[in-house]
């Protein structure tokens, strides 16, 4: 199997200099996703696990962590566990990015990872429209279980992330998401790229107002809100 791979990043793991491994394949189809073509990309330009481990062994002194991202990494439990084991053996801190749809897998790997970032994309009642139809029967149960699991962790070891899509993360959705969190949960809001880029000064101003409004709503639920541009 081949993976997407970024040799170093200062923005994918708070406080760490990390490499990023992208595992292809996802059970969601978010309209703003940048990784929709990941499967096709890695087929041609991907890295094997041996190449990644060899690079990490050489770069160990420059890096402090690895971020395992996707796609959705928890769809491939065995592969994910193996990668975690290899990265731990290299003494690198491990961050896992997840959409929270496989709570059992998350539960089994969570004790082995140092930091988890889970997306909360929209109101629970609207989630089914984002996921593959096969997910329908268990999706909401799994999402809630994943949120509960993270809320049991020390707050500095997890975060929730919401991409501020004007459609999926409107004000009602932000209130619904906020009600799922604890006050001490870190909640990062991310600008949505690709869905509706402002085309002129007036639209940019409107967009700034919308982002600020989202931050203000989020601050009503969490003490640790930040906007990632
Ligand atoms: S869950 Fe993440 S990887 Fe999957 S479609 Fe949505 S944004 Fe893309």
Description:
By secondary structure, the chain is an alpha/beta fold. 34% of the residues lie in helices and 21% in strands. The chain has an eight-stranded mixed β-sheet. Helix 4 runs parallel beside helix 5 and helix 6 packs parallel to helix 7. The chain starts with a strand and ends with a strand. The model has no long low-confidence stretch (mean pLDDT 94).
| Strand composition percent | 15-25%
Bound ligands: iron/sulfur cluster
Number of helices: 7
According to CATH, the fold-level topology is TIM Barrel
| Helicity range | 25-40%
Instruction: Describe the global form.
Output: globular
How do the strands and helices of this protein lay out in sequence?
Layout: E1 4-9, E2 18-23, H1 38-45, H2 49-59, E3 65-70, H3 77-89, E4 93-98, H4 103-109, E5 115-119, H5 139-151, E6 158-164, H6 171-178, E7 186-191, H7 201-219, E8 224-228
Parallel strand pairs: 2-3, 3-4, 4-5, 5-6, 6-7, 7-8
Antiparallel strand pairs: 1-2
The structure holds iron/sulfur cluster.
What's the short story on this structure?
With 229 residues, the chain is an alpha/beta fold. It contains seven helices and eight strands.
